[in-house]
Amino acid sequence: MTSDFNAELHARPSIYFTGPAFVEHIALMPSALPALHGSRYLPDGGNNDDPRTQVEHHTEFVTITRVTQLSAEIDAWPVSSLSVEDIAALVEMDTPRLISRVGILVLDSAPAELGLTLSKLGFRDTAASLIGGGAAQVCSDFRVQDDQTSRILLFNKDLNAYRLGRMVRRIYEIETYRSMALLGLPEARRLAPLLGDYDKKLVQLTNRNQTTPTTEHKKLLDEISDLSARIISAAAETRNRFGATSAYAKIVEERIGELRESHVPGFQRFGVFVARRFRPAVRTCEATALRLDQLSHATMHLIDLLQTRIQVEIEYQNAIQIQAMAERAATQVKIQRAVEGFSIIAISYYLLSLLKVAFETADHAGFHISPLVMLMSIPLVIGAVTISILRVKHALSAHD
Fold it and tell me: Which residues cross the membrane (predicted)?
């Protein structure tokens, strides 16, 4: 494992060379990346004039870099030595997607008439900078030619083979990572009208949340949940792409900083030209990702508000029901007490009736009983019945 980590430090070395030379760099995105990492060199013929080719496998794209030595006199832009068939054979995949193609012409120190040289090589509206602390000069108009190549001219002054190789690598990486970062821009443009619709829908649902009656809460909750699902789905589909855009943009900024640019009179700086036209696209992707995240949080917050409102209304209804139940219970207690009173009276009445019958029967049998006995039995019977009913009620309450 440690050796793998250490190998990553040396995974993508530069091709070291001296000028004049023509460097071709192609970035491709295959439909499925092979399980390869790092870089590999293809063997050349052992002659300094033979091209040296390097194939690198990155996380989601593959690059091909070829360095071809040139003669001292350059009158026109060199013709590419990489055909479509060569590219397909090098990356070992069918129909890869072209991300960027950069041609860097490396010459000796800049000529006295720079404008004339640029015009002869077909450059227009060129940006230029001194780089490497003035050790070289880079020029480009950033126009894509008919063969999908972006042309860059590098005049080497004091760079040795090692510094030249690293400097050329920084330059073509700026173009490669810039192109990879901009893959998020079509997604941002695709989402722009959808996000506008989501915003309007969210405003409508928020307003309805304030006025919707209780009977329609479920329908409103279903609509908010549907909107939230669509927003989360859009965020999930583009999260990796926008995250990659942010990561690639940082690499571009780092590579521009590593150029250590200084101004060339009469020209806009190379890095400034890239940054001014590149940052707005990156910020568009960042703003779209942020907007998706904010919409997702807003819809979830609206769902929480609606659920809270529903919960409050449920609790209010429960409180009303509990109060009604308490009132019914109180009424039942009153009824029960009234029934208990009537029960005492009824039972006492029946018992006294039985006593009366008994006294009358005894009187007919010749046993005369004083009416005072009958009168005194009335409170005794009522008291006994009352005590009995209360004891039964107490026993039932203790059992419950």
Answer: 338-359, 365-390
